[in-house]
Amino acid sequence: MSPTLVRHQLPNTGSMRCDDPPAAAGARARARDWAEIQERMLVPLYEAAYERLGVGPGTRLLGLGCGSGLALLLAAARGAQVSGVDADECRLELARERLTPDGMPEVTRLVSGGLADAAPEDAAFTVVTAFHPVGCGSSAGGLTASLTAAAALAERGSAVVLGGWGPVERCATSGVLRVAQRLADSPAGFAAGSAGWRLAGRDDLEELADRAGLRPDGSGRVSCPFGYADMASAVRGLLSTGLFDAALEATEPRQVEKELTEALHPHQRADGTVWMPNVFRYLIARTR
To answer: Which residues contact residue 40 at a Cβ distance below 8 angstroms, ignoring those fewer than 6 apart?
Structure first.
């Protein structure tokens, strides 16, 4: 089945093209760090949702914010037909590499445009996923609009999966991400109109589902520890998430890296590895 990947900009959010100098090299590096270091941390979340929904042959899945395509790849391995949209062209390039077999580019239909271009030609979607944690920065409004549009392309009663951080006390990374929040909230951050990471609310996912006109239909929690080979990998991985973008706009990159490294030190083990246990939450909602 042919995966479809579309560059789609969420309303009221920025988007990244890999041919936008002079940031192109940095954007590519962050996308590669996401694909090679950070994205795998959320595999337990992807697999838990897929197992619960029975994703497999006959599933037509749309991934909102599909990134570099790992979640789509896992769904495709189960036999699902997958489509993905993302605002970051650099990440989409990596997704195309993953989802297009060598020597057979014709099996992937690549289009440019909005959500409508991602829809299967002969049927509606049966599953929509938005795994990127809700409550980060100012993207909630844009995600609501995209979820509403995606729901219109899905069959009635289709599952929509929303992902988010679990309780703060069960997410070791929350203490580290406060660096992003504090730096984005600096006077320079306010002047730039930046919005950084914010603590997750208990009902974030339910409130998002309600705004998008979806009906909640169950939830779950999954252990998603963040583990890194060394401190440098941990810094690169976390910077690739986008959660520090507002901090980087408001503060010198070297200062952000310095403070991030200091915040990570309590989580570094004697062998140099960095380990942070986290619990993520997902909500299953249904289209009406």
So the answer is: 70
Kindly report the pTM of this predicted structure: 0.88
User: Does residue 112 contact residue 29 with C-beta atoms inside 8 Å?
Assistant: no
| pLDDT tens digits for range 22-32 | 567 889 999 99
For 227-241, the DSSP string reads EESSHHHHHHHHHTT
What is the spatial distance between Cα 150 and Cα 142, in angstroms, rounded to a whole number?
Answer: 12
User: Which H or E run includes 16?
Assistant: none
pLDDT tens-digit map of 143-165: 899 999 999 999 999 999 999 99
Collapse the DSSP code of 9 into the 3-class scheme (helix H, G, I; strand E, B; otherwise coil) and give the result. coil
Phi-psi region of 219 (alpha: psi -120 to 50; beta: other; left: phi over 0): beta
CA distance 267 to 102: 40
CA pair distance 50, 34, nearest whole angstrom? 22
Separation between Cα atoms, residue 281 and residue 284, nearest integer Å: 10
Amino acid letter, 222: V
